[in-house]
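Pair request: fold both.
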Amino acid sequence: MQLVIHSNRRRSFTGRVAMFVRIALATALWFVLNAYPTQAQEKSPSPEPNRDRRAAASVTSAPKSEKQLAEERKARDAARKRGEITFDDLKFDIEKDGAFKKEMITKEIEELNKKTVKLRGFILPTSVFQQSGIKQFVLVRDNQECCFGPGAALYDCVIIEMQAGKTATFSTRVVSVKGKLEIDSESFRYPDGGHYAIYKMSAEEVK
């Protein structure tokens, strides 16, 4: 009888830990998605010197030719065939603070569903509670220094869950995550029904 009680307590404790981790991830993503400006807001004039310089550079740079654009598309398609994608490959049209709908997912994004890919990004610091042995974290487009702002949109983050026996080590630099990408429009919701993420990855390595 005593063994059964101890076993039940261990299962109850494990369940509470799992629930705490999920709530912590949701809270971290809520902060990212609501505390920082979106891409649309970033287009407005900013008093910050770095953003002013970036804006000036974008104005003075010559527009890309059709040949350059074609070469970029060709290189991007080749990378996708190798399983190397970017956050731009996960982007879809959604209004600021708009509700996510499944029909927003493009055919190109659907083709990536349940495929093994490599994605580069930053580990969201508030999504981890240790420096090594990390089993779950949030991968975001940038580290708060990019002109887009961290997690500026729903497609700018991916929930990473390490495969059995695999762990990650925290880094402030860009990391490359390899694993099976999935579109999950049901698991990552706020109590009011809104989404804080729709992408997840079962990762086999983080470099």
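--- second member of the pair ---
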Amino acid sequence: MSTTVSIDGPITPSAMNNFWYLVRRYPLGVAGAIIMIMFVLAAIFADYVAPLDPFSTNARASLARPNDVYLMGADMMGRDVLSRLIHGARISLAVALGATIIGSGVGAAVGLACGYIGGWFDLIVQRITEVMQALPLLVMALVITASLGPSLRNTIIAIAIPLIPTVARVIRSNVLSLREMPYVEAAKATGMSEFRIAVVHVMPNTLAPLIVLATAQLGSTILTEASLSFLGLGVPEPYPSWGRMLSESAAEYVRTAPWLVIFPGLVISLVVFGSNLLGDALRDALDPRQRG
């Protein structure tokens, strides 16, 4: 007796139903996710998507208006603005993702230790985080970048360090409530070590607020990187950066060549807008209090 096995495509009806449910329930979140996916794909395939070389200069095309060759115009050195925006997505998203991952990871570890260990360790660390939170993100990033020098690695570090206190305090507040749960007491009764309880049982239950917080901070890190580059403390030349593109043209060419300011500003606004929409949708989806 032969059995015929039918293989469906990778997209099953249930998956499609779930997708359309998300579209109906969180339309703005889906829109934000689409925006972020577009920028991520543009950054990954920048070498294939960009119409021209972002580093190639052409004196004859200096400050060229948008046309069929330079779709978004050219800058003062004759470089294609569109190509530099596409390649600039690599720098901006790399800094944003790197700073968010490092800041969230270290902050989650610190918050877990403070909330679970408590005592004098929690007291000392909380006073340090309060001092760090007293300074705005941009101010602290400026101080650290000025001390370390402008580079991609230093920019990521400078933005990641100010993120640690916020993440640590959020995770700590969750751990303080989770460590009193019955399953933690049951794990202690079985003789499980405190470190294993914290890592295996407590930490996974803090992932939902951690994901929401990291997504919400992604937009602020992009703005901070653009601000540092605008002030000349971000990623140095010749690498294209959205903030540096604004700083090079905002003061001198805002009237004669407004496309040098409009398009980088629109790109920064769009990616920050998309990350905020995605973060709000994740908060509503992962927070039981927000569910209908």
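Observation on the second member. The first helix runs from residue 13 to 25.
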